[in-house]
């Protein structure tokens, strides 16, 4: 969630800001008119998508892949954001999004102007919206109007009024989904949301998950477990729920069946994940130390990075201290952020992919991790825990070896078993690769989602 912007601007800068804000809307309006021009061919459904303040975000390949699949399927997509990240953080398979991104200026000054616009033109709709949000969040009307994300939502709404999308889609339940909720209410646009792991977390004043669930025409649950949790939050089965796992472009991965391990071989362990407590990386470090004590030549690569200046950064420091304390600092490579091409190189080189993930006391846990799907597509043998929804994509002793959470010894024993059992790694890798292609490829998973969008638009006409 992005920090709030409260900076004051000089008058000249303020005029320039408002001019740039208006220019954004003019561009979106021109693009929508161009797509509707006579002779443009069969009209395409316009979709606006948004996920986080920044775009792209390194750890959100699942968002990028789903949005890119919309564009590839013929929807006219615009991906909205407020702050531009690094091009290298965009997945290779989602490269189409770079040309479809649209930055929105979100500042308290322009947002106040946009709110006033709707106060004049749609006072009844605005009053109804405020009542809904106050009831759902527990905030008073004054508190709501003082929340800058509520103000920014009207700048997003002005942009959507210019672009005239047939459908809005957002990700997670933070500020961008709030923006989509406001725009959909004010402009009568059907919308949907893709749900991952944050719906159970009480970490945002305007999260209002039940209100989102009631007002969305499409609710993508990225695992069956998440679907059940959403139904429970709603208090009844949600007709809008579509269980659709994260999908990957399996053709962009090169599967390699690993030869049987020999005693003298170096064992290359790999984990691809954000540096976050729910990834359970301390148990992977413990397992690395145990394997070394058993005589294995082991090297563990952790690909990923923490959010800067956060609890995750402190977690990384604790992991490095743990590695030093156990005498395995030389065996642990914190590789940091790697682009999607580099991740594929790491996957091709790994002997075992380890997913030591855990479920946290506050309810935070993984859904279906994209990194595990990518390891499956690479035919890399997998040792994973029973955390989150991992059990929905791999079965013990069929596509992976599954162990209990928070047990470094169990991880080490599983890796030892995989390395010493003739043909086990190759069998698990081949089965995982086949399942990834059959069930988790973009060509398989996304069709039902696209059909739901078309049905929602048709129902709204």
Tell me what the structure shows:
This protein is an alpha/beta fold and 461 residues long. The protein has 2 domains: 18-25 and 43-247 and 443-460, 3-Layer(aba) Sandwich (Rossmann fold), CATH 3.40.50; 250-439, Rossmann fold, CATH 3.40.50. 46% of the residues lie in helices and 14% in strands. It is built from 16 helices and 15 strands. The strands form 3 sheets. A 7-stranded parallel β-sheet has the order 5-3-1-6-7-8-9, with helices on both faces. Strands 12-11-10-13-14-15 form a 6-stranded parallel β-sheet, sandwiched between helices. Strand 11, helix 11 (311-325) and strand 12 form a beta-alpha-beta unit. Helix 3 (108-121) packs across helix 6 (148-163), helix 10 crosses helix 14 and helix 13 packs across helix 15. The longest helix has 25 residues, at 11-35.
Summarize, please.
By secondary structure, the protein is α/β, with parallel strands linked by helices.
Strand order in the largest sheet: 5-3-1-6-7-8-9
Helix content: 40-55%
Given helix and strand content, the structural type is alpha/beta
Largest sheet: 7 strands, parallel
**How many β-strand stretches?**
15
Kindly report how far apart the N and C termini lie: 34 Å
The CATH topology of the largest domain corresponds to Rossmann fold
CATH superfamily of the largest domain: Glycogen Phosphorylase B
CATH class designation of the largest domain: Alpha Beta
Cα radius of gyration in angstroms: 24 Å
């Amino acid at each position: 969630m992005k920090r709030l912007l409260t900076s004051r601007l000089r008058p000249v800068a303020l005029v320039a800001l408002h001019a740039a804000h208006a220019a954004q809307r003019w561009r979106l309006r021109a693009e929508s008119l161009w797509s509707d021009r006579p002779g443009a061919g069969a009209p395409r459904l316009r979709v606006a998508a948004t996920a986080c303040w920044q775009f792209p975000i390194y750890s959100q390949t699942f968002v990028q892949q789903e949005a890119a699949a919309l564009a590839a399927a013929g929807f006219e997509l615009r991906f909205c954001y407020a702050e531009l990240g690094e091009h290298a953080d965009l997945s290779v398979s989602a490269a189409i999004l770079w040309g479809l991104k649209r930055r929105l200026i979100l500042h308290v000054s322009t947002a106040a102007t946009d709110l006033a616009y709707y106060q004049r033109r749609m006072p009844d709709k605005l009053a109804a919206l405020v009542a809904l949000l106050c009831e759902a969040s527990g905030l008073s009307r004054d508190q709501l109007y003082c929340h800058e994300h509520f103000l920014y939502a009207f700048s997003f709404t002005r942009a959507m009024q210019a672009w005239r999308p047939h459908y809005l889609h957002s990700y997670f339940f933070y500020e961008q989904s709030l923006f989509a909720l406001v725009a959909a209410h004010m402009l009568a646009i059907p919308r949907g949301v893709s749900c991952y792991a944050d719906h159970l977390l009480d970490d945002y004043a305007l999260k209002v998950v039940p209100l989102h669930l009631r007002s969305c025409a499409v609710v993508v649950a990225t695992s069956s477990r998440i679907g059940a949790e959403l139904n429970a939050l709603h208090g009844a089965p949600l007709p809008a729920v579509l269980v659709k796992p994260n999908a990957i472009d399996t053709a962009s991965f090169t599967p390699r069946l690993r030869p049987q391990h020999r005693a003298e071989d170096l064992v290359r362990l790999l984990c691809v994940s954000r540096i976050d407590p729910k990834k359970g990386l301390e148990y992977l470090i413990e397992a690395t130390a145990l394997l070394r004590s058993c005589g294995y030549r082991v090297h563990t690569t952790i690909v990923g990075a923490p959010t800067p200046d956060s609890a995750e950064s402190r977690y990384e420091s604790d992991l490095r201290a743990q590695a030093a304390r156990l005498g395995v600092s030389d065996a642990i490579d914190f590789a940091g952020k790697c682009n999607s091409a580099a991740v594929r190189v790491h996957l091709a080189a790994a002997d075992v992919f380890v997913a030591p993930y855990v479920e946290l006391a506050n309810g935070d846990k993984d859904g279906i991790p994209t990194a595990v799907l990518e390891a499956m597509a690479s035919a890399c043998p997998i040792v994973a825990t029973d955390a989150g929804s991992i059990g929905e994509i791999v079965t013990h002793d069929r596509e992976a070896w599954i162990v209990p959470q928070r047990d470094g010894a169990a991880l080490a024993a599983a890796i030892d078993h995989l390395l010493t059992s003739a043909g086990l790694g190759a069998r698990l890798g081949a089965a995982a690769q086949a399942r990834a292609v059959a069930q988790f490829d973009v060509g398989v998973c996304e069709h039902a989602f696209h059909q739901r969008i078309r049905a929602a638009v048709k129902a709204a006409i």
